[in-house]
Amino acid sequence: MQNQRKDLPTGASTISVHAGESHHKPMDSITDPIVLASTYTFENTQAVIDFIEQKLPREEYGRYGNPNERIVERKLAALEGGEEAIVYSSGMAAIVGVFMAKLSAGDEVVFFDECYHRSREFCAKHLSRFGVKTHQVPACDYAAMESAINENTKLLVSESPTNPHLSCVDLEQFAAIGKRNNVETLIDATLATPYNLKPLDYGVDYVLHSATKYLAGHNDLLAGVIIGSSEQLEDIRYLRGIMGAVNSPHNMYLLQRGLKTFDVRMRQHNQNGMAIAEFLESHPKVEKVYYPGLSSHRDHSIASKQMCGFGGLVTFLIKGADWRETADVIDRIKIAKIAPSLGGVESLIEQPLVISYFECTPEERVQYGIPDNMIRMSCGIEDSDDLIADLKQAIDG
Amino acid sequence: MDFRTRAIHVGNERDESTGAVVPPIHMASTFVQHSAGEWREFDYSRSGNPTRKNAEKTIANLETGFGALGFSSGMAAVHCATMLLSAGDHLVAGADIYGGTYRLLHKICDRAGINVTLVENPTPSRLRDAITSQTRMIWLESPGNPLMSITDLKACCDEFTQEENVLVAVDNTFATPVLTRPIELGADIVMHSATKYLGGHSDALGGFLVTKTQELFEELYFVQNATGAVMSPMDSFLISRGMKTLDLRVRAQSETALDIANWLNADERVSRVLFPGLSGHPGHQIANTQMNGGFGAMLSFEVHGDFDTAQRVANSTELFQLAVSLGAVESLIEQPASMSHASYDRDDRLKHGISDELIRLSIGLESAGDLKSDLDKALSFATTS
User: Fold this and answer.
1) Structural domain tally of chain A?
2) Contacts with A283 (C-beta within 8 Å, 6 or more apart), sequence order
3) Which residues of A touch B22 (CB under 8 A)?
4) What is the CATH code for B3-244?
5) Residue B157: in which H helix or E strand, if any?
6) Interface contact A346-B8, CB threshold 8 A
7) Tens digit of pLDDT for each residue in A226-240?
8) Which chain A residue lies closest to B244 (C-alpha atoms)?
9) Strands (E), B54-134
10) pLDDT single digits (tens) B61-85
11) Within this chain, do residues A251 and A267 fall inside the same structural domain, yes or no?
């Protein structure tokens, strides 16, 4: 099972281009039309009644979905090897959508502590308001995760790879803990993408992505997606229709268009990530590089087993630098732009201390593993020699 | 910086007004001025638009030209270039050119008193023989459509470098700047149907003219502004977005095309494959030096049989969709005799080398294995039924 993903199935690129789309489109267009309607008309009253009674597959009102979103949902489900996908207006809307659908007062969630700070914040500040208890355990500490489970536990959550440390979860173990304890499991695989990792193959129940990142790939739209079995997604979709965090037809068209080059983009992101990680590791002024493709990475062995590439995100520490000297390295960079987010064709660079953890106390940053000299770079699809030369001049000062 | 890095960053500079990593789409038709009679950079979108300007900046850089102009279609770009000519002027073009260009030259430009001569397989000497004292423009296309003929662009440009009155324009739609950069080979003007590889997703129409010199840019800008067939902001945005993956797409598609050409070449149901990457192709040697790291993703082949056999092949593929146009992520198939070149009468068409059993493929981004198995099924069906 584990080794199935070492090589991509034939036709992954064909899936990117064609999956989820009808072979014959309206007006014989080669591309799908952007359907901007907020509401959808019925021929007569009987048609409305038939729609309600027979649950006919058609559109009703834009908050329940739109044709462009459904195409993307089918394409993402196909890429991930899942039965169904539900798209949201952002990655955070997706994870909140799952939590709100699956958790009630008294329920508990256990999650690995290396994660996107806004996910953590939602658990700590908002789920708690609704009487849901969350437990953080150290990333990849499976025993700690299992012992945090009790009869109220409903969901186990982790990212893989995690952000920004790129720890990789042993998905077989993770899924097995869930199955053993009758608790559902969710993996945020935004950094891996279905090109590199397919959590559902290991028995994980839900895969979540911020589709804003690699899936859309052009830093020009926001989207989130949850993928799993139709049965398990039914209540999530129902609640999305009430809460309304759907995505727009225009955005969905751009996401669909972005997915067409998903395969070639990921190959280049993987190649650049690896080349840059290797360059950084060999640089005397770099203290440490976090990249699961490097044999020095703690989770290299599990990552190599489960993933067929390691993505474009590389985190590293500048040797002996304080926060200002680290910021100076970033300010000298010419190609990558300073910005949060990742996964687009343009390289982006950031100092986690400044971009995501500026409001935290130094103690909290130690707890989250965010030292002052940490830099996170999202390698785009530019030429790797250009990115390396740029990093070199910036680090050398 | 390397081509791929420039394709992503040049013309996509950080937006100063918001910091946005992707430049905004400026839909405005007009721009507010600060003082009467003092024009700012943008005044009216026909004369210039920030989103169009970004796309123009990118393609000008990739083609290593002075500047570029974005048009509403490839034909609008060709038309603008021909409007540099006046009544009595003469234009020489390769014979294996896009049908739309042929039609423009013979049915529209001729009305304005411009004379046109077509040259089969243009070489420096054949072009030299065709020009007159009135010749002002030479129009070349390489690879040619649909026979994939290769023209030695450098040799042809070199032949006319001394003649300042004779402009050499190259339609670089098939090769793209990833593989060939005509201005580096001496061309004065490069034309693109940006609808094809530059946009790359079958969802935007556009054309570009890229010029070698500032003088030529200004002349063409004058014509464009006076005639108005400009690229829309939304199309400019989509084409800019497409150019960011141009290098990856063209290289991947060219690689698949070479694989399929070799496979077809070895197939007994196929009588001839026209692809410059094959050693038996007459333009192979030139393509080897003129095209950098790939031979493009367009190929034609002839199936054993007749018009009906070819039609059955074109009608029975699943993954290859039956449509004209080319250059996008989706693979397309067509029969020139019944589609792209149906307007020729049969004898003329055959004389041109466009046979009844010719099939043209635009190889997309799908995996080579899936495309081959699709063609294999269609060929079996067509040659046995």
Assistant:
1) 2
2) A392, A395
3) 218-220
4) 3.40.640.10
5) helix B153-159
6) yes
7) 999 999 999 999 999
8) A345
9) 67-71, 90-94, 115-119
10) 999 999 999 999 999 999 999 999 9
11) no
